[in-house]
Amino acid sequence: MADVAALAHSTQAPAPRVVLDSNIWVDILIFDDAVARPIRAALEAGRLDAIISPACREELRRVLDYPQFAHYAVDAQAALAWVDRVTRSVADPEEAARTQGEAFVPRCKDRDDQKFLALADAADVAYLVSKDRAVLKLKRRMAKYCDVAVLPPKQFVAAVQLESAPLAEAQNQA
To answer: Which of 9, 41, 132, 142 is the most buried (most CB within 10 A)?
Structure first.
């Protein structure tokens, strides 16, 4: 029996590589948004290969300290520790680009969001998940030039079939 389970596990597709914009982390860590719950569950179960850079993590740290979130009483240190457990940290892409030659990454109107686009390209992810309009407007260009699908969370959950994953796993164990 153990050999069958090991074989089934070894034939599963690798976890999709993804970058999550800060607004998605906020939905997961502060708001417990229903659309983001499957993403959180997939992160906890290791079904996503979430990539983060020091610059993206620092932005999240700043966002978690915004005064408008104070009444949610989120322990920012614990939240960041959880993010550290469920993500893989890579070097900031700007540093890597200087040593390896610059690749074309579409420019975002909001300069603060450029780091997510650059990370998605440099880390060779399949998905960049965001609710930011400026990022979502670059969906076609990111697909064309970087081979990255830029999706809002609901579309990402559907595309990666995260909602059906726990049900399928439960049925396989039965």
So the answer is: 142
Query: Distances from the Cα of 123 to the Cαs of 2, 11, 64, in angstroms?
Result: 35, 24, 24
HSE-CB for 27 with a 13 A CA cutoff: 20
Residue ranges of domains in the chain? 15-173
Q: Which of 139, 138, 115 is nearest to 19 (CA)?
A: 115
CB 120 within 8 A of CB 19: yes
Confidence band (pLDDT; 50, 70, 90) for 94? low
Does 93 score more than 90 pLDDT? no
pTM for the full predicted model: 0.84
Q: What is the DSSP letter of 69?
A: G
Going by pLDDT thresholds of 50, 70 and 90, the confidence category of residue 109 is: confident
Cα(132)–Cα(110) distance, integer angstroms: 10
Q: Which of 108, 25, 92, 31 is nearest to 60 (CA)?
A: 25
Q: How many Cα atoms are found within 13 Å in the side-chain-facing hemisphere of 14?
A: 7
Amino acid (one-letter) located at 111 = R
